[in-house]
Design a protein that fits this description.
Layout lengths: L6 H47 L2 H110 L1
Helix pairs in contact: 1-2
């Protein structure tokens, strides 16, 4: 019998898909962070070149670029951490939902198994009662046959005795 998937299982499946998609998104964000680090390094080099040239204003401008790129790197890394935390929380929630569902299924199965054992017990009781009744009936039949045989022998003996007396 097919049953509709529960909303929690659908949610769990969607969470798993989002988690798998996050791998690619995480890679892209890490590439962007790495690119921003390269830009920061290039700005540092430009600041050193400007410093060597003696251009203070250019040095300060390049150092501001470095700060900007470093902030961009921190932003990308924070975004990766935040998304990872969200995915982990969703995964934990989905695991709890699945665990709850498994417990419900186990409880239902346990109830069915108990009913099955109760029914088997009642059937065994009935079998024993039926076997006892059948044994009693066979015993009564043997007793009746034995009484009948005894009565016929007695009657035959009585007839033979009466016939001999005549």
């Amino acid at each position: 019998m097919l049953r509709r998937a529960s909303p929690s299982l659908v949610s769990a499946a969607r969470g798993e898909v989002r988690f798998k998609q996050f791998g690619m998104e995480r890679f892209v964000l890490l590439v962007k962070a790495y690119s921003a680090r390269i830009d920061a390094h290039e700005a540092q080099i430009a600041a050193r070149v400007a410093n060597i040239d003696g251009d203070v204003a250019k040095v300060q401008g390049e150092l501001k670029k470095v700060e900007g790129y470093e902030a961009e790197v921190r932003g990308f890394l924070q975004l990766v951490e935040t998304k990872q935390a969200v995915i982990t929380a969703e995964s934990t929630r989905n695991e709890a939902v699945i665990d709850e569902f498994e417990l419900r299924v186990k409880a239902a199965i346990t109830a069915l198994e108990k009913d099955s054992l109760d029914n088997a017990y009642e059937l065994k009781k009935y079998d024993i009662i039926a076997d006892n009744a059948l044994a009693d009936a066979k015993l009564a039949l043997r007793e009746a046959q034995s009484d009948g045989d005894s009565t016929r022998r007695h009657a035959d003996t009585s007839r033979n005795a009466a016939g001999a007396a005549r």
